[in-house]
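Hi all, posting the design record for the shared folder.

TITLE: backbone redesign
STEP: 1 of 1
STRUCTURE INPUT:
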């Protein structure tokens, strides 16, 4: 595997189930045992009901582009070879918002409300990142 020059996440006991899920092709989030709210980013208590119990739950991986930006300047040298690159805010079907990238199409083809599906990009021997691909609607 080639050297990955971009910043990598720090794996902790708290977030390991999220990263382990991605490594196995599954997008997972904390789901509150009290009210069922999905927590992201991860948190020790539910922001809705303050319950501490939760279970790591797989989600559909389907969503829509809520917003996006195309960067033309590298704010970290690891991104220089990718210019211009996009960063998108994805709203998953389950209501979770997460930042990622749209892959598989040019930046000029990205539009808000475009349906997308999670894709898994293995970037190191131990890290897989969630990216999103457009989904063709019937």
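Okay, here is what came back for every position:
SEQUENCE:
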């Amino acid at each position: 595997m080639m050297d990955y020059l971009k910043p990598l996440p720090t794996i902790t006991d708290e977030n390991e189930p999220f990263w382990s899920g991605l490594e196995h092709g599954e997008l997972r989030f904390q789901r509150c045992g009290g009210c069922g709210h999905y927590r992201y980013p991860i948190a020790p208590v539910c922001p809705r009901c303050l319950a501490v119990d939760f279970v790591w739950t797989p989600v559909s991986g389907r969503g829509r582009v809520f917003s996006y930006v195309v960067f033309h300047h590298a704010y970290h040298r690891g991104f220089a070879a990718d210019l211009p690159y996009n960063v998108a805010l994805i709203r998953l079907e389950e209501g979770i918002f997460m930042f990622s990238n749209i892959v598989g199409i040019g930046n000029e083809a990205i539009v808000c409300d475009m349906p997308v599906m999670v894709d898994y990009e293995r970037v190191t021997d131990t890290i897989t990142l969630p990216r999103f691909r457009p989904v063709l609607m019937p």
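COMMENT: Helices lie at 16-23.
Let me know if anyone wants the other runs.
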